[in-house]
Design goal:
The structure holds three protein chains of three kinds. Chain A folds into three domains: 284 residues, no CATH class; 114 residues, no CATH class; 57 residues, Arc Repressor Mutant, subunit A, CATH 1.10.10.410. Chain A is built from 15 helices and 17 strands. Chain B is globular and about 65 Å long. In chain C, 21% of the residues are buried. Classes of the chains: A alpha+beta, B alpha/beta, C alpha+beta. Strand 2 of chain A pairs parallel with strand 1 of chain C.
Amino acid sequence: MSKQYEKVIGLEVHVELATKTKIFCGCTTRFGGEPNTHTCPVCSGMPGSLPVLNKQVVNYAMAVGLATNCKIHQYCKFDRKNYFYPDNPQNYQISQLYLPICYEGSVEIETASGKKTVGIHEIHMEEDAGKLIHDVWEDCSLVDYNRSGVPLIEIVSEPDMRSAEEVIAYLEKLRLIIQYLGASDCKLQEGSMRADVNLSIRAAGAEELGIRTEMKNLNSFKAIGRAIEGEYARQVELLEEGKPVVQETRRWDDNKECSYPMRSKEDAQDYRYFPDPDLVPIVISDQWIAQIKSHQPELRTEKLERYKKEFDIPDYDARIITESKKLADIFEATTAICKKPKKVSNWLMVETLRLLKERGMDPEDIRFTPGHLAQLIELAEAGTVNSTVAKEVFEKMFDANIAPDDYVEEKGLKTVNDEGALRSVVESVIAANPQSVADYQKGKEKAIGFLVGQTMKEMRGKADPAMVTQLLKELL
Amino acid sequence: MKITDLTALELGKKIRDQDVSVAEAVKACMEQIKSREEQVHAYVTIDEAGALKRAEEVQKLIDDKTLTSPLAGVPVAVKDNICTQGMLTTCSSKILGNFKPVYSAEAVKNLEKAGAVILGKTNMDEFAMGSTTETSAFGVTRNPWNPEHVPGGSSGGSCAAVAASECFYALGSDTGGSIRQPSGFCGVTGMKPTYGTVSRFGLIAYGSSLDQIGPIGKDVADCAAILEAIASADTKDSTSVARDRYDFAKALKKDVKGMKIGIPSDYLSAGLDPEVKEAVLAAAKVLESQGAVVGQFDLSMVEYAIAAYYVIASAEASSNLSRFDGVKYGYRTEQYDGLHSMYKKSRSEGFGAEVKRRIMLGSFVLSSGYYDAYYLKALKTKALIKQAFDKAFEKYDIILGPTAPTTAPKLGDSLQDPLKMYLGDIYTVSVNLAGLPAMSVPFGCDTKGLPIGVQLIGDCFCENQIISAGCALEQGRRGE
Amino acid sequence: MANIITDEIIDYVSILAKLELSDEEKQAAKNDMSRMLDYIDQLNELDTDGVEPMSHVFPVNNVFREDVVTNQDNKEQMLANAPKQKDGQYQVPKTVE
């Protein structure tokens, strides 16, 4: 019978910061663009070029550090990490090893097994590398430096996690915090958030840490989960066979659901870190820290409590709305206009989330404005459109941000509330469907549904189903 | 008097007075180049057409009084590790043999704003690593005073060009003495400013914490004017230091009465050529006769400077030169088998022996297990060297000493023993380690007829002191 | 103290430095490094206890730029010196993941 093993997991998370320009030059960080059109001598490593630090990167790094309970190194520097690879134009990456900007922090996570604190060892600033594309036709690789120099923070956790569930909870918590700060949009699929998993195993109850491996190329939460289970199984098998676990970096292939060692013998993994002589140290005053703290936007936990109190919405609803800062912002702005928080929260929780899921979008991608949502809510409240029509209009608004007032006018979607006109249509439907009428009068309640449907069809959906039902009952 | 015998400032005045046109000055340099260059080989690239075109533009701007700088219209040569947009910038290396920068160095742009006319790019030791200009991939430069001797290095081409009147002044770079030593060997005046005074943006880096661009000219006044033109606070260079004042030429008027001058006794020890020692002591006498007070003192730390310098400079260079990999620019090998083969072959074929030697040493001292013992130790030594100078400058206004232990050696003598060659930097490297300004001023010749340079070292940000003293020395020499 | 530089050390440093040395060059490198390191060992004579390693010679700190876009599309210029390019990108031998 095999021993019981425990997983010991630490994460290195890279986050692309939402600055307008790169960390060491004035090139734009805008996504997309033809290759090498967002580059300059500095970020493409031309001879004689020199880096100059973007202050906003320091601001964001500090903000994330403070929001994760870190201490700030009030004297910190940049170091060069030397290695050769084509996506690295200088063949060294400017990073921080000896004095990272933040250290000794923590985040609280919650899983099915309860609450837990995950330690953060350090957070440091560094520059991103360019992009390598493999050209199958010519069996070569092509390099684009648009991404080279985009600012990153790397968040290194303590090896405090013990399961894939905890890892996901940790990543979601980090994402929530960082999005709330506006420091990054943290999208795994787009690469603005990347996680490398360090995993080792040890016999349950043991104190000593086992040899760990590092896993890269994890592009979704599902892939992370699979990679953790896969690597755990691989390490258990090795130990059971009496073989040692080799400390190495492995690349996870999610299609094949297995990993491959990445290191080649051309790479000594000796980075020869030394302080970058082209950059001067950063001295962070107490005032600067206080300034960052004071500008910190309301974080999720505070917002949650405030929504419950101020808008009197239930805990469940408030949780869902505050899952994403964008959703929360839309909620508040819409409520400010129409003053109907429960209606707003309903539209967000039900229809909005449904369509986001259907279209595979994130809340950050929502196109409609609070003003338009407020319009729609007013139309529905006033009975100007019925609930079916409201949902249709919502979908159009979701996809193209149309103005509901204008759209309803244009397409003539208003509910016909004229009882007289409605009555005559109901009467003609009764006359046209004697069988259903007879069924209903015999006691078949459901038959009225068919008659309501026919009336709605005649009215092209522009009637209030409740009124129709009432009229039918009256007339029959 | 030949036009090319004028100093840069003298020419500048004649141009303003309309006695000489800019085009005439350029043509005079080209004539001189035609007659001397085959022997001297100071230049890697000569751009006669470009210079004449620029001369026309500059002439117009001088005529309509847009350009009023004292150096407007004066032709200059630029060391080949300083980027000049659209003009070959090779660092005298095969690996950049076809490289044309897409921007110009800040110092070059400042010169162009002042109306300079660039004649071409000068030869150097490859990537500024060397003391004789013999490690250039494009042939050696010969000392204009005696073609069998080296001009010094690494700014050998720039100094030879000025000495041979193939230009009126030049820009060089100094990491461990690369402006001062060749200036001494070639009998011209050369200055390294306080670290951070001249922007390093566009200077192809060798030892980033030590490099500075500086002027090489026919006299101290020229150097002061050139420094004024090229120095600036540059937001593109994080190590650039904004100076309170940039009017360096003002110091030319001040005399040396009461100036306290110290000669380190550790500089006058056994390794120093007796004729050079004599020159230093004679220079001291000249300054004394003008009212300065001269004394000797123990500088200390002298024997450790070279070791610390080579560790730090090689370490930084090994990282700075990693970008030369055949991917983005420069030389790429023709035959290779995969990515790493391409890297290794391109670099091994593109770099010369001295460069490879320093890259290897630098990579080693930064590598795992050796970083503390070598690199950190060297940085601590650097701190102690700075302290030693700080202490000296509490007592003295400037330090006087030799520029090099000998005059220019013969071609071919230095490269067999790299370590011996490094030891020749003994008087210059500590100045770079401490970030101080220093100047080499010509002071006579030895019995072989080769020039001797004496070095004036100032406290940081005190160029004015060494400019005043240098001027006094010149006047004293002329009076003899 | 004599520094013995072995073939292994030279091979290791060559990988770090991405250089390929011939046998002759390797031999010369071993001798050169050995001599240079012996010379550099002089520094061990110095008592540097309590001395902070000095990276930057002047106490200049906090040099920043504002987060404002200042550069434009310079693609032509950036690629002008490329030894090999394709589709607006630098071309290199296939990189193995």
